[in-house]
Write a structure and sequence with these properties.
Strand order of the largest sheet: 1-2-3-7-6-5-4
CATH topology of the largest domain: BirA Bifunctional Protein, domain 2
Number of domains: 2
Number of helices: 7
CATH superfamily of the largest domain: Bira Bifunctional Protein, Domain 2
Structural class: alpha+beta
Radius of gyration: 18 Å
């Protein structure tokens, strides 16, 4: 590990975290380029499964499709976890949704606000993005490890987002009108992640899917789908048991396993008048 990254003293609660896997080792940094990048380096150096990288600031935080993740110091949670699944089949999207569920539950516990999931990797409050997930797979001849990254907007202000050009994004502080304690939130997040990962390992995706149905904010929205070089529109029916998105186009129901969705601009007025639980366009 390069000496350019300064390790911080761990909060006391991380020394006695009652988890089975997540947090088996924790690396805390003042600032990094990207927690996913540091986790990858540590994984290559032999860090154990469940190891967590957390930073107070990221200079080049990464989101989906090469987008950046706004990561100023002192206000957010930016962490990455090393996982070593036996098979990668369907695992990337399933783990992304697992992290979304854990994050949404964590936000609800801390604020009392109802958080929802926007397929495939966003957590939303009141139709605004508050957290995002990025899962990156690393291969040799077979899967070596996955890096599961999570970014949560905790105490960001409206002015911060406006200055950076993210007027539709939100934070826990914006939604509640008060600051949230990041250490308590981090502890709760790691407990939730460990809980759902243990269930996922023992019983597969189905128990998690049951929870996802309660949080899914996709059904009923008319969306534009961009997947595998193709773009089409249809009615989003929700997340299926294999973590794919079901979209009805005419009389056909299509299964989307990768890509992104956004509300079709042609349908915004209609959707706003008929369905209060629609998702919003990409915000980061």
């Amino acid at each position: 590990m390069s000496s350019k990254y300064s390790l911080l003293r761990l909060p006391a609660f991380l020394y006695s975290l009652p988890t089975q896997l997540i947090g088996s080792r924790v690396y805390s940094f003042k600032e990094v380029d990207s927690t996913n990048q540091i986790a990858m380096i540590l994984a290559e150096e032999g860090a154990p499964e469940g190891a967590v990288v957390v930073a107070d600031r990221q200079h080049n935080g990464r989101g989906q499709r090469g987008r950046g993740w706004y990561s100023p110091p002192g206000v957010g949670i930016y962490l990455s976890i090393i996982l070593k699944p036996r098979s990668v089949l369907a695992t990337v999207h399933q783990l992304s949704l697992l992290a979304a569920v854990a994050t949404a539950e964590c936000i609800e516990s801390a604020t009392g606000l109802k958080a929802g999931i926007k397929w495939p990797n966003d957590v939303i409050i009141n139709n605004h993005k508050v957290a995002g997930i990025l899962v990156e797979a690393h291969w040799a001849e077979e899967i070596k490890y996955l890096i599961l990254g999570i970014g949560i907007n905790v105490n960001h202000t409206k002015d911060m987002f406006l200055t950076q050009g993210f007027p539709a994004a939100t934070s826990m502080a914006i939604e509640t009108g008060r600051e949230c304690l990041r250490e308590e939130l981090l502890r709760e997040l790691m407990l939730k992640l460990d809980h759902w990962h243990r269930i996922y390992q023992e019983d597969g995706f189905e128990p998690l899917w049951g929870r996802i149905q309660d949080m899914d904010r996709t059904p009923g929205g008319w969306v534009e789908v961009v997947s595998m070089g193709e773009c089409f529109e249809g009615e989003a029916l929700g997340i299926d048991k294999d973590a794919s998105l079901l979209v009805r186009t005419g009389e056909i129901v299509r299964r989307v396993t990768q890509g992104r969705i956004r509300v079709s601009c042609d349908q915004l007025q209609h959707l706003n008048s008929t369905d209060s639980n629609i998702t919003t366009p990409e915000q980061h």
